[in-house]
């Protein structure tokens, strides 16, 4: 971070310090001696396996990166957010509104990892993970799984699943590559291939579920159809995402 970034962060923390009450009513989860032993035993086994693969010194350095509330992954998004703010004039308040909107959507989904709402003010008052991202702007760590049964058209008809089957028009797999900060990223690059394969375009898509590891990533150009990007600049795209409404009552 630049000296100005550090000053901005300190000013932000001071501004919202009063809005960050400490809830003393929450008690730490009680753990048994057996639970603690199992936890440390699992950590030890992971350390041994990683040490065997990359060396113990490397594992120790990696552990420093993930200590406390720090996340090297969020550092990347924080850097991108600062670059966006400098180039397009976006603000941390806009990021807070995006995060608040997403938390509202999750509160409507009983299967969501987080089922509570957060006001923009509370998002801003949450602890800083990496400037300008607060904890409420960052995706949590979680484990999950999903599966899909793939079969050909004849099998679908044979099993009587035509009314509920979803046709896969394209499935594209690619890798990231070195690029300039503002160049086309993997999402936009592969989406063009995905559109071309079935002969469709963004205008044919009625719903899109996009990945968002932080509030800032939702303002990326790659998350929007090309026809939309051509009409709006980056800052206006970010503002549009702030006012994004639930789609026909469906929330993910």
List keywords for this structure.
252 residues; mainly alpha; 2 domains; two-stranded antiparallel ribbon; 2 strands; 2% strand; globular; disordered C terminus
The total count of strands amounts to 2
Main β-sheet: number of strands, strand sense, barrel status? 2 strands, antiparallel
- Span between N and C termini? 34 Å
**Secondary structure tally, helices:** 10
The percent range for strand residues is: under 5%
The radius of gyration over CA amounts to 22 Å
Broad shape: globular
**Proportion of residues in helical segments:** 40-55%
Query: Order of helices and strands, N to C?
Result: HHHHHHEEHHHH
Mean pLDDT: 77
Number of separate domains: 2
Reading side by side through the largest sheet, how are the strands ordered? 1-2
Uncertain stretches of 5 or more adjacent residues: 221-252
Which class of secondary structure composition applies to the elements? mainly alpha
């Amino acid at each position: 971070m630049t000296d100005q970034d550090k000053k901005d962060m300190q000013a932000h923390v001071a501004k919202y310090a009063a809005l960050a009450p400490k809830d003393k009513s929450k008690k730490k989860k009680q753990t048994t001696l057996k639970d603690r032993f199992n936890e440390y035993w699992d950590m030890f086994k992971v350390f041994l396996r990683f040490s065997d693969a990359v060396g113990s010194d490397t594992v120790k350095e990696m552990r420093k990166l993930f200590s406390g509330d720090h996340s090297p992954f969020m550092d990347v998004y924080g850097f991108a957010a600062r670059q966006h703010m400098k180039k397009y004039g976006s603000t941390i308040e806009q990021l807070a509104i995006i995060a608040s909107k997403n938390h509202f959507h999750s509160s409507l989904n009983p299967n969501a990892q987080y089922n509570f709402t957060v006001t923009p003010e509370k998002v801003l008052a949450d602890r800083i993970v990496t400037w300008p991202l607060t904890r409420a702007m960052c995706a949590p760590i979680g484990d999950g799984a999903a599966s899909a049964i793939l079969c050909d058209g004849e099998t679908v008809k044979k099993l009587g699943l035509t009314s509920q089957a979803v046709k896969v028009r394209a499935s594209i797999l690619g890798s990231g590559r070195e690029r300039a900060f503002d160049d086309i990223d993997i999402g936009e690059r592969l989406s063009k291939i995905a559109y071309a394969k079935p002969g469709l375009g963004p205008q044919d898509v009625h719903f899109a579920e996009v990945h968002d590891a932080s509030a800032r990533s939702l303002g990326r150009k790659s998350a929007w159809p090309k026809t939309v990007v051509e009409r709006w600049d980056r800052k206006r795209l970010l503002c549009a995402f702030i006012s994004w409404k639930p789609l026909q009552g469906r929330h993910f």
